[in-house]
């Protein structure tokens, strides 16, 4: 056998060795294989097996699984609890003031006549709404910004990333508190979320840019270019979906950052304000009663710590589950 024949015999004879097949697949050519999702919306067996592997990897990360259960329980407490509990977060004349925990009020009451359990439900709900909104908005902006910068490269990339560098050196808490101070007395949860999101997308943009820089020269992108796909289609149809793993992990961890920022803003008096409530505002209202009436101070602080810990463990689990280098799955 000649050297040429020997080399040819060692090559793969599958579709990848022959190049992209004619038709719609020429443009897509994504590394996940299979048809374009627009042509065939049903997941291929390969995609289903990938999903099962990711779920199996996540399930073997016990801290992440336990954290997910705790986070779901916390969300149920916040969003479903008000429908079954007698008291809400507002002042009620029927509620005696400054009472320790009892059967009627498991977490006690405030001087003004708030039921602390009702406040905890509402405060956790508002804090989670702020954090999830920040994560969604910042992830959307940061992903697009980073993907465009990484795909274009050259001077557009340099300008866009210098903007990111400038925003990264700005003290975030000082800026968002200063802006929130202009709304003092009437800040709503969505205003707080918009303020935080406006300055929280930069880290995700750097993550996505790095991933796109490593993807833009791969064969599936070259195939899309050869098929005449526009830059926007390549970015949104090919690059961003293939950067989904790092984006999901970064978005998850951003939830914990947003919770701490919202709590800090409310604690400083620049976040959600009365008559509404948040966990940070509850800590601020009870800071002088940490030792005399601990039932007012410690529960909201512990919920903040619990949510942030669970989010970080879930982020670690997602990072391991989405890492392509993790090939071993325990049965």
TrEMBL record:
Domain ABC transmembrane type-1: 128-315
Presence of keyword Transmembrane helix: yes
Residue numbers spanned by region Disordered: 1-50
Subcellular location: Cell membrane
GO aspect biological process, one term: transmembrane transport
Keyword Transport assigned: yes
Source taxon at top rank: Bacteria
Main localization of the protein described in the UniProt heading: membrane
Membrane topology value: Multi-pass membrane protein
Record GO cellular component, one term: plasma membrane
InterPro entries: BP-dependent_transpt_permease (IPR050366), MetI-like (IPR000515), MetI-like_sf (IPR035906), OppC_N (IPR025966)
Keywords from the UniProt entry: Cell membrane, Membrane, Transmembrane, Transmembrane helix, Transport
PROSITE patterns: ABC_TM1 (PS50928)
Family according to the record: Belongs to the binding-protein-dependent transport system permease family.
Name this protein carries in UniProt: ABC transporter permease
Species of the source: Nocardiopsis gilva YIM 90087
């Amino acid at each position: 056998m000649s050297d040429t024949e020997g080399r040819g015999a060692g090559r793969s004879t599958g579709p990848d060795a022959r190049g992209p097949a004619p038709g719609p697949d020429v443009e897509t050519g994504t590394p996940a294989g299979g048809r374009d999702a627009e042509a065939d919306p049903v997941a291929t067996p390969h995609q289903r097996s990938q999903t099962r592997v990711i779920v199996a990897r996540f399930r073997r990360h016990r801290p992440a699984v336990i954290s997910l259960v705790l986070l779901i329980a916390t969300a149920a407490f916040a969003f479903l609890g008000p429908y079954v509990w007698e008291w809400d977060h507002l002042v009620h004349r029927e509620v005696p003031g400054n009472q320790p925990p009892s059967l009627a009020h498991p977490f006690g009451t405030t001087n003004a006549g708030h039921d602390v359990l009702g406040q905890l439900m509402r405060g956790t709900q508002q804090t989670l709404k702020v954090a999830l909104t920040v994560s969604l908005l910042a992830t959307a902006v940061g992903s697009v910004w980073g993907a465009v910068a990484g795909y274009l490269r050259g001077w557009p990339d340099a300008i866009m990333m210098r903007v990111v560098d400038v925003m990264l050196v700005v003290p975030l808490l000082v800026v968002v508190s200063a802006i929130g101070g202009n709304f003092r007395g009437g800040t709503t949860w969505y205003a707080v979320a918009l303020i935080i999101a406006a300055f929280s997308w930069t880290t995700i943009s750097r993550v996505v840019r790095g991933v796109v820089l490593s993807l833009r020269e791969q064969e599936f992108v070259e195939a899309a270019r050869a098929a005449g796909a526009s830059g926007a289609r390549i970015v949104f149809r090919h690059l961003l979906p293939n950067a989904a793993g790092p984006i999901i992990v970064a978005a998850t961890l951003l939830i914990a950052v947003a919770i701490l920022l919202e709590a800090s803003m409310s604690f400083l008096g620049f976040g959600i304000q009365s008559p509404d409530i948040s966990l940070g505002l509850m800590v601020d209202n009870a800071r002088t009663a940490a030792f005399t009436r601990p039932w007012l101070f410690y529960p909201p602080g512990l919920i903040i710590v619990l949510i942030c810990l669970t989010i970080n463990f879930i982020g670690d689990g997602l990072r391991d589950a989405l890492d392509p280098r993790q090939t071993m799955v325990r049965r």
